[in-house]
Design goal:
32% of the residues lie in helices and 11% in strands. The chain has 5 helices and 8 strands. It is rod-shaped, with a radius of gyration of 71 Å.
Amino acid sequence: MTETVLPHTFRRAALLSAAVVSLAVVAGCGQSSTGLAASASSSATTTTTTTTTTTTTTTPPPVTVTSVVDGRTVVLSSGVNLVLQGLAAPGECWASSAVEFATKTLVGKPVQVVGARLVLPGEGDFAVLAAGQGAARAAEGADTAIAEAAAVAKQAGLGFWGPSCGGLDVKPAPQPVAAPPQPVVPQPQPQPVVPQPAPAPPVSAYYANCDAARAAGAAPIYAGQPGYRAALDRDKDGVACE
C-alpha cells in the first residue's frame, strides 16, 4: 500500500475548516438551549388562568294583598301584617264599609310597599284613595295629600261623611219620638129634660043639636069629650051624634 503525502499547505487548510465547523456546532447548540429556556420561562411567566363568573339574577315575585284585617291593616303575600300610615283606626259606625272598600280595592292585586304605605300601580297611594272616598279617616298629623283628600270627601258628603254616620265614629242613639197628642173627643152631653106642658084642661063645648056638632066637625062625640051630653046620645051607648 502506497501512502499519499498531502502537501503542507493543504493539510493546514483542512484543519482550519474542521475547527470552524466544530465552533459552529457548539454555538448552535448553545443558542438552541438558551432559546428553549427563555421560551419556557416566558411561557411560565405569562400564562394566566381566566375564570368567568356567571351571575344569575332572580326577579322576586310581586307583593300582593291576601286579606284585610280592618280598614287600615292588611296582610301581604309575604306574611307581613302592615298597618297603613296616615289612616286613623276605623270607627264603629263605618268599620264594615272600610273593610269592604279595602277588600275590593286591594285583595289579590300587586302593590308596591313604600315604608308603611301601599301604592297601586296606575292608581296611587291607597291611603289617599280611601280618604277621598270617605272610606277612611285621616289620622292626626297625616300628610297633606291624605288630609286634602279627606277634606274633599267631607265637603261632598261621601262615605261615612254622609247620612249613614254623619261623620261620627259612633252613630248617636235615636231619640225617642214623642207620641202625638190624642185628639180630645167631646163626650156626648145629656140632653136637658124639657118639661112637657100639662095637658090643657078640656074646653067645654055645647052643641044645640047633632047638626051643630057635625057642622063644627066634632061628631061623633064620645062620652067624656067636650060637647057630649046625654040629650044627643039617643041610644045611650056613650056616643052622641052617630
